[in-house]
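Dear Dr. H.,

I hope your travels went smoothly. While you were away I took the liberty of generating a structure for the chain from your last submission, since the lab meeting agenda had it listed for discussion. I wanted you to have the full record in hand beforehand rather than looking at slides cold. The sequence, exactly as received, is reproduced here:
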Amino acid sequence: MEPRWLCGTETDAPMFIRRPLLGFLLTATLSIGLSPVAFAFIINPGVVHWATTASGSRTANGDPATLTWSIVPDGTSVPDGSNGGNLGPSDLIAFLDGDFGAGPGGSDLTQRPWFHLFEESFGRWGELSGATYVYEPADDGLTHSTVSGVLGVRGDLRIAGAFIDGASSTLAFNYLPDNGDMVLDTGDGTFFGNATNNHRALRDTIMHEHGHGFGLQHVESNTDNLLMEPFINTSFDGPQLDEVRAVQFYFGDANEKSNGGLGNDTAALATDLGTIALGSMVGVGSDADVPSQFISPTATDFVSITNLGDTDFYAFTVSQATQISATLTPRGGQFNQASEGGTPTPFDASARSDLSLTIFDTNGISVLASVDQTGQGVAETLAGLSLPGAGQYFARIVGADDTIQLYELELTIANAITFLEADFNTDGNVDDQDLAIWQAAFGVNATADANGDGTSDGADFLVWQQQVGSTPPFVSSQSVPEPSSCILLILAAAPLFACRRR
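The corresponding predicted structure, in token form, is as follows:
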């Protein structure tokens, strides 16, 4: 298949998907003045795209959004996007009907045999991110690329078709936000009519063009194939790993649209990973563990910390006291990349933000353990953390750098454990820390109740004396240490108190 350009543009000039001929779009693209900072996916830095849509508003990149899309009626005026000219009336519906058939016809475009290809293309971006794509059946036919979306009137993203240059250079073009409108070249009937791999040629074109529609520029690589490269490549299907990172930069991961769009930023809103059985593991983000940028077109398990304002909470349940190990691994991969026309250089998408991991008790507040011992690109690990009993616990992930980082989290349960009665802090050891807890609780509350009588008293100290230095299973032949002098007075009274109770 002859390579063609997939190009995109500024808000007032489109970006195109083409064959090898650059045409005027190279000048238009370079005029944007891209930042020299490496982003891998190439963005317009510092800009919040789609702050307002027909469905509502959001305040920052990384927040979820709902975008509607519509297909303009044939006859809608289509500007050419470059010099104020006009490509003529849109004929996309008639063009697709000619390539695929019209089905029952009529105004309900969802009944067309080609409609599902658009739905699947937008849906793929949606299942990879916090963006939700909704088909808007209405479109009032006002001039393409000149008006904003309005619910029940027209979509945020309007799709038209017109003859651009036929079967030669340009396949399509798309406007950058907050326009996002798309034009397909209806002179490319053979290319778009290719049925191979569920019409991958058409779907990849739509998905590439909408990458421009939510804010991406072209990226070039000489080590991996990426959807947002200028030339179309139908050897793979849809967004690749760095484009997953890209769409989540703008809209967050799919968990951000949970809880009515509130995401999973608190323990109360935590994403539930379910129950972890003894000897088993649960995790999230495993689809990002790939040797290159290539991902399966059905892969959906991708998560990320988008920026300094993002926090991810996960809930997990154990059925009894146990020990857990946790591994937090940054993902994204290493590959060469450059902005359009540049020379690709090495880029490590796994080392963008320094992530940290915290495990909370069942109340979602008390910290059981926290780890932040490594830097960017290196996994954080907790080993053998004791969970004191059955219940739902929480894991929290945050980043230290104001950029996006894909990650994978694995939680593994090894064995059930039994805590000794005097292990008041349930760390698996009876030691001076438990003695300090008993001292603070003596006569006050039952947080150091080793014998189960509902109070913290001298009898509980006797249990501590018997078990100090032990880990389960308890060995009773150990010697009993003398208490430190700083608490000698209160300890001296404790055995007498216990004797009186007997």
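Two observations you may find useful: Residues 432-501 form one domain. The longest helix spans residues 196-213.

With kind regards,
E. W.
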